[in-house]
Specification:
Distance between the termini: 57 Å
Shape: globular
Oligomer: single chain
Number of helices: 2
Helix content: 10-25%
CATH superfamily: SH3 Domains
Largest sheet: 5 strands, antiparallel
Mean pLDDT: 78
Structural class: alpha+beta
């Protein structure tokens, strides 16, 4: 019974801070970016932070995408209706700024 109580207490604490559903927590705290890869290409979204990871989606030139408000090296976590992954940060500009590339 003590184990069940401890697990239940952990779930009660973990759920509100987003430990159980990191995608949902990230979406609530995300930034909006404009995809600006070299024209006219789409920006690949990959399964991990690097070109060695498989593409899981793409964002069209000058389309907006939601993502985390920070980068992991040169990569930013992004998500859309049908994908979640990593995009090359230099090809992302904040929606109200010019892209930095």
């Amino acid at each position: 019974m003590r184990s069940f109580t401890r697990i239940l207490a952990l779930l009660v604490v973990a759920a509100p801070i987003g430990l159980l559903a990191p995608g949902a927590a990230a979406a609530a705290e995300g930034c909006v970016y404009v995809a600006a890869p070299p024209y006219p290409a789409n920006l690949w979204v990959r399964s991990g932070p690097g070109t060695q990871y498989e593409p899981v989606g793409s964002v069209g030139y000058e389309e907006t995408v939601e993502g985390s408000c920070g980068s992991r090296g040169s990569w930013t976590r992004v998500w859309g209706e049908d994908f979640e992954g990593w995009a090359y940060a230099p090809y992302l500009g904040e929606a109200d700024e010019d892209p930095d590339y």
